[in-house]
Specification:
It is a single chain. The chain is of the alpha+beta class. It is built from 7 helices and 15 strands. The protein has helices at about 295, 300-315, 330-345, 350-360, 365-370, 380-390, 395-404; strands at about 20-30, 35-45, 60-65, 70, 95-100, 105-110, 125-130, 130-135, 160-165, 175-180, 185-190, 195-200, 220-230, 230-235, 245-250.
Length: about 400
């Protein structure tokens, strides 16, 4: 619709002789004589002009001084300093969004020329020395974002990598991510995003940290070992070549003397032989893998299996399988019954003193049962009172004999 305005210049005249009317106005970029300018513009048209017709009626745009200009058909590119060119067609690339990376702030550029081979390929660029340069990412898989960029051990950046999952443990029921530093090889457990916890080394854990050399300050390496009575002594040497510094420590990291004789350590509760019905002391009280006494240690695996089978049959023939019969003393059944009863009371956190106090049974009686000195007879009211008080299943004794 024609707009009535008071202009500072004369309106252009149509070739048909009529005056033109203002059909629109605005401000912004436009092109005049091949150069871009910015300012107010006005669109003029003849009243007889119809869009799409082939007549010669006037329809054009002029600036604020009445000079003919050309409006842009699309928004021009922003004046970006150092805008990169396409590697295929050498045309200026179109800028897109920014991205924060570990190397700094980058920006994506893409070629929009229809006949270019690189059309639509977004490429990340970094600004350097006033120019946008193509980013060269590292080869291989991209590192995962843990929320922590610095290694807690060596304080280096961009060295943390994911290495699978840990197995579930007593403290961590859920399998957590394993994170390893590529520089110092330290292993961490990703407890939550942004929180790393030092993971223990695999295998048996050390009871103490290795000692340090007083001269060089480095950690010593464990060398030879020998026994002094019931205590094992370890010799730690400096890892530097030519250094003769060494120290003797026991298994708990305490200093040990090479010429001092140690007294044999006697356990308050010595380990007993694992053979069915045997209450002899084990040969080795230190190594828990050696579970038999002197006589049974000399037997082979199949010989011990035969002895255990014969003893189980003998206990069954004595009538002690279901806690029946007369009271017996110093038998294999009494020994096994004492071990079973001690295990049941231990699971409930009870001793012979506390069990006697809660049931009213003399503590010496319960002690004789636990030690295998005697065994209760059929229908013993004291045994029934003990079983009912602590909820012990009497059939567990039969299960123990069957699975021994």
């Amino acid at each position: 619709m024609p707009i009535k305005l008071d202009l500072l210049f004369d309106r252009p005249t149509c070739p048909c002789g009529r005056r033109t009317w203002v059909n629109g106005q605005g401000s912004g970029l436009f092109k005049r004589s091949g150069l871009f300018e910015k300012g107010d513009w006005f669109r003029f048209a003849c009243r007889l002009y119809r869009q799409g017709s082939a007549d010669d009626h006037f329809h054009g745009v002029a600036d604020s001084k009445g000079r003919p200009v050309e409006l842009l058909r699309r928004k021009p590119r922003d004046p970006i300093k150092g805008r990169p060119r396409c590697s295929e067609c050498r045309e200026l690339l179109t800028a897109h969004g920014f991205k924060e990376t570990s190397q700094g702030k980058g920006r994506y550029f893409v070629c929009t020329k229809p006949d270019c081979n690189a059309q639509g390929a977004y490429q990340l660029h970094y600004e350097k020395d006033g120019r946008w340069r193509l980013a060269k990412p590292a080869r291989g898989p991209k590192p995962r974002d843990f929320g922590v960029d610095k290694c807690p051990a060596c304080k280096r950046r961009s060295t943390l990598r994911s290495r699978g999952l840990f197995k579930s443990t007593r403290d961590y029921r859920q399998r957590l991510q394993r994170v390893v530093c590529q520089h110092c090889r330290a292993t961490f457990r990703l407890v939550e995003y942004g929180k790393l916890e030092k993971a223990p080394s695999p295998g048996f854990q050390r009871k103490h940290d290795p000692p340090t050399c007083p001269v060089h300050g480095c950690a010593m390496k464990r060398g030879t070992t020998y026994r002094q009575g019931a205590i094992r002594v370890y010799r730690w040497r400096c890892s530097r070549s030519g250094c003769q510094r060494s120290v003797l420590l026991d298994g708990h990291g305490r200093p040990a003397s090479s010429d001092q004789t140690r007294v044999e350590v006697v356990r308050a509760k010595p380990r007993r032989c694992a053979m069915l019905g045997c209450r002899e002391v084990r040969v080795d009280q230190v190594d828990g893998r050696k579970r038999y006494c002197v006589s049974h240690s000399k037997l082979s695996y199949f010989q011990r299996w035969r002895v255990k089978r014969d003893r189980r049959a003998a206990i069954t023939r004595e009538g002690q399988l279901v806690l029946v019969g007369t009271a017996r003393t110093a038998t294999a059944a009494a020994t096994e019954f004492g071990g079973w009863l001690a295990a049941e009371l231990g699971l409930r956190g009870e001793t012979h003193r506390s069990a006697a106090r809660k049931t009213g049974i003399p503590w010496k009686t319960i002690y004789n049962w636990l030690a295998g000195i005697s065994m209760p007879a059929e229908g013993d009211p004291q045994l029934l009172r003990l079983v009912q008080t602590f909820g012990i299943d009497p059939n567990g004794f039969a299960v123990r004999l069957a699975t021994a």
